[in-house]
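Thread: Newbie trying to understand structure tokens

Hi all, I'm a second-year student working on a class project, and my supervisor (Dr. K.) asked me to get a predicted structure for one chain before our next meeting. I've only ever worked with sequences, so writing a 3D structure as a token string is new to me. If someone could post the tokens and maybe explain what I'm looking at, I'd be very grateful. Here's the chain:
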Amino acid sequence: MYGVILAGGNGTRFWPVGRTAFPKQLLSLFGEKSLFQETILRLLPLIPWNRFRVVTRFELVDQIQAQAREMARSFGDGIGTRNELHLLAEPVGRDTAAAVGLAAISIGRVDPTGIMVVLPSDHLITQPKIFLELLSFGEEMAQRGELVTLGITPTHPETGYGYICRGDLISEATLPAADTTTTTQCYRVASFHEKPNYETAKNYCNQGRFYWNSGIFIWRVDKILAEIKECLPQLWEGLLNIEPLLGTPDESEAIRGLYEQLSPISIDYGVMERTGRAAVIPADIGWSDLGSWAAMTALHPTDSMGNLVLGKVVDQGSQNSILISHDRVLTTIGLSGQIVVATGDAVLVCPKDRAQEVKQLVEELSRRNIPELSSPLTVSRPWGAYTVLSEGPTYKVKRILVNPGQRLSLQYHHHRSEHWVVVSGIAMVTCGDQVSELSAQQSTFIPKGIQHRLENHGETVLEIIEVQNGGYLGEDDIVRLNDDYARLHGGSGGSIR
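---
Reply by user tm_fold:
Sure, no problem. This is what the structure looks like when written as tokens:
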């Protein structure tokens, strides 16, 4: 069995904490792990580390890999920090059919009849043991040629999800860890239904034959590719042209032109609604797609007034509200049914019952080219992270953290100089032909156009303050000469330091 994790989302529904450059799947909304990390950990009892394929956006590769390395370090010798997850970077987004097809041809090179478990990277599942048992049952059905999806047993009339209507019974099984009288079934899919209005959703729930569409699938590699060939011939032809380029240098850049020609379409609409092999396994696994800020109440306890309060919040007399602040003090008085989320550079205020409209708000921010839409103040990098403390037309001040044993690329800039002040740790600095060691309270100047590098050879995190000066301070003003993270060509290009 192979785990195919779809991790290319844009982070629109959890703005301002989630950004297009740091979307929902990378956020730690509950506990210390991100939703992406929780997704991987949930599957590890069933699927080995080396049989994951993560399909993500070109721009997120470094952040996804950094979170994977963080997990790998926690496993010690069981995985090892050098054994990185297999990432498939989409040069442009083309919806889930293309993402699934890309993963299928990648796995098909080594295991044409392997079983793929395809699932989003940003969902919540509170019953992981039952989930794994259902996946094992789904594997049996997939071996028989079925294209299986998990249908979530609805708990209420939900208008925000698509629905699946079951047909005839195909097979049933007893869950190993469940009561011996408890069985689970696999049904032929009778029909798929788009998001309904409330009365229709209520009718679906009363019938007992309808399930929420989870977006979780189980199928054999050769079977899904055969269905793509039958149902989506244009995508199939594109995959045939892309397959020889996988694993080549600059893989993502090599397939860009071919990928851009693919028509965007979901795997649900493109294949599952057209095939005669679609099957559904009912699943009661504590599932949520965490589709808006309002869903946060499912993750955290509320106070006696029904408020969810996280971070630096001082409230008086509010009720049934979501109040979140991580980077500044948030004070509120007498709110009712409101959402207030504050970050260091943006604030969201809206009624809880309009939380789904954050997506439209983000579209408006994009139309107006508001920079706070894209990157948060703190940005993860493979070597550590940086936080923008202040900026103006000709200057930018950053706090840079370099993890032990890591180093930035050997690089230079066309448009800016940099001044570094060491706050803690020991910095190994290359500037031109000179290499020097700086400790706390020491500083150095990096002229424009001079090659330079920052390294941390110590055992603690290196912290520096960087002051940039110049006419252009964009992150793409970086020319790499040597890099430990394969970002010289392709990779994350100039957008990643």
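A couple of things are worth pointing out once you decode it. Residues 128-143 form the longest helix (16 residues). The longest strand covers residues 163-174. Feel free to ask follow-ups in this thread.
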